User: What shape does this take?
Amino acid sequence: MWANIISNKNNARCIAQSNENSSLSLILKAAIVILILSFLPLLAGAAYSDTTKKCISCHNDTGYPADSDMDGVAAPYKRPHNNNTMCESCHEADPHIIKFIQPDGTYAGKSTAASCPACHQTIIPNVNFTLAFQIPATLRHSSDPLNGSVWGPYWSNSNPKEACIYCHNITLHNILPLGRILEWAPGYIIDGPIGSNFSCANCHYKGSADYSAMIASFTAASLPTPPEITNGTSWNGTSTRYFNHSIRDYTDNGCVPCHGNSLAPGARMSEFLHNVNYADMNNCLGCHRSGSSAPEVNANDLGSHIDLNLTNGAGNLTSEDCRTCHFTDPHKGANVSNTYYCYDCHNKSVGGRAPIRSSKKFDDKKHGEVTCINCHVADGRYHQGNPRGSVANSSYIGRFVSTITNTTDCADCHRAANLDDAPFNAPGGGTHIDNSCSSGGGCHGGSTFIAAVHTTTPLDNLQKKPIISVPTLDYSTVTQGTDVNIAAIASLTPPNGNALVDGAQYRINNSDNTQTILPWTPMAASDGNFDSLSEGVAARINTNNLTGTYNIFVRGMGGGPSQNPLERYYPMNGDISPVKSVTLVVQPLGGFINGTITSGGSALEGALVSTTSASDITGPDGTYSLSVPPDTYTVTVSMEPTHDSSTTSNVVVTALNTSYANMTLSLRPTGTISGTITN
Assistant: This one.
């Protein structure tokens, strides 16, 4: 073999050696021999063909076009693809007449040569390529039929080779075909099982340990980075088919239920990565099933609502049943724009929105001012087998002796219950509640118990609501991390029965009120107890996780005393004040730009140093300090009229850190103005 390698090298460099300087030192010759010998174990250890061994004996220059192995021949460093595809498989055996494998299995010129898809999607009809790993044609790794086009300029199937290069780089002559992937996951195993690892998260989840290295790899190659799945409401401004995965499992197993619908049984990880389905938002039960990371929903959960949609027969749960109520994407949070609620089917006064109407119809918000879900509690489950929920739960029957055993009567919620009693927080009615409530609403309306439950009105005048003052803050603008005190006055105008101010709450919204940052949260009475017609109320806002402009809302609540004098006051139905608001600006934690200004080797006092949001005058020692929010800045120094100005760009400032920008100003040349003044 040694003779063959030396012979081939001599043939390849015969012209160069014919003019070789005969004075080449023995040391240099020895070095060349040692370098060649160093590759013999590699060649002998690998199951390479003789032709391939000859090829790589020359194609050994890692510093090409330089002759880095100093054998007199400059040839790019190349090795068999995946360490098993020999050179002659792609280029035929004659090293002096290089040919290229074609998609039809023949050999011809480079311009029509086969690329990755020809081997890995259709298999070149040539015996040397029958074992090439196969991926789907068309490749699926995206939320769009054209793959990357919906999220950015990644690739399209009009040129499938682009997709291969995007992830793997050009690895035609590499023994490790994973290419770019090894830059952030060097230990990745080709075609391993779909297990509890993070192949998907490495590219798409910013919390992954390999995410930063992955971003750096694509950025260095001037390629767009993969879409991040917990980015908020869109990826780079594109919200089409975007879903925030911030509450999901980030293992590969967690991705399969939604994105592996096209996988064959027993699929391996390589098949999954090349055959990713976009999650069909209409296939509710594809995710909400046993074994999925999403909450399971089954036929028992829907109970009496199982037959709202009979498209697939009675008692048969399908995604059509889900979409009867969740008529558009519910992952954006259930609201009236995507979900039908109880009163959309059961409301008789205003008609309701839902196309399917129930024969059981009630007036909405007529049990005081509560909604259906205040009473029909779902016992902590996502759906409820009995639509009456906790109202029919036996654990709430028997607080008061009653002959009714199939439902809860008034006393079960109101006799001794009070504000802190779960799940209904119903105001206590004391001993004036008795069995007579079971046959009708009595003072509160309704001729039958069912009618009373759904038509109850409070005795107190709902127009006599409490009021609350415009809230005040001890600081309207603060730096992140600074606590802010909020205060207001809640009051009731007498006479208003036995009503007293019973509480107050505050809420934090973003600047345009499209997002609630903190839901309604209790405020404290300034004097320690809610027990009068007028109460100062206060709370303390923690700004550690806030930056930007926020609207702070407050509201007060009126209450009446419980029938039990030992228990606290409870809010009367609907007695909540209109809200008032104030604006709070939270600035991000800043950093500093410090430096020294000199001229002619000496400190320069009195120079003006300025940037976008700050300025300073240098002291006797020429130093300055600028306090600025995190950002990238351009700093300018001037001292008119004696010195030329100077500018430093790209000064990066991070929170609580100091960046430095030292500059030197040149003294402007001086001259003499002379003349004669006459009169």
